[in-house]
Fold this sequence. Notes:
alpha+beta
Amino acid sequence: MKRLYFIVTGLVLLLAVGVWAVPFGGQQTENEMIESIAKACSDMRSMKCDISQTRTVPLMDEPQKSSGTMIYIQPSRFCLDYKEPFEWKLKVDGDNVTVGSGQEAAGDAGRLYKGMSGMILGCMSGQMLKDNRTFSVSVTDTGAEWKAVMIPQRRDMKKMFSRIELGFDPDTRLLKRLLMEEAGGGSTEILISNVKLNGEYEAEW
Length: 205
């Protein structure tokens, strides 16, 4: 379950990455914003960022902290690489999915990883925002930040999350925080730093 949680975390972050280049402002309607997001996703050739994650779990005294990096290379290569508190990696190259130190995902776990990887790549193309079977999305300008709220619609997502909130800096238009409220009562906050778009990351992938 912990591995699946990391994968879904990557999925949500990648969906958020597609919003970084969106030209919010003016009198754009929500549909126009979503179309702009989809275009920004399709224009992104590659992406790399650092993530710092803090998860709060009911009945636990201390929050759980983890950190790592993410890399995406168009059209269908993705790597989620956690460094702390332990090392673990998910790599996707088309239909080929490997986990851990490079073991091919197989059996029920393999089908799960491949299904989740397909959703991740759907986020990278921007189509996930248009799929109202998975999330309902609303975007508002609060003055202090641009806030996007995602409510899960699909049964499997509802079992994991009740609400996802993305906060964007109104000056830089970059994602600065992500809050995921879990169906079981816990929550996860993720801070993003060192965002790099359209670089050459072949050697690091």
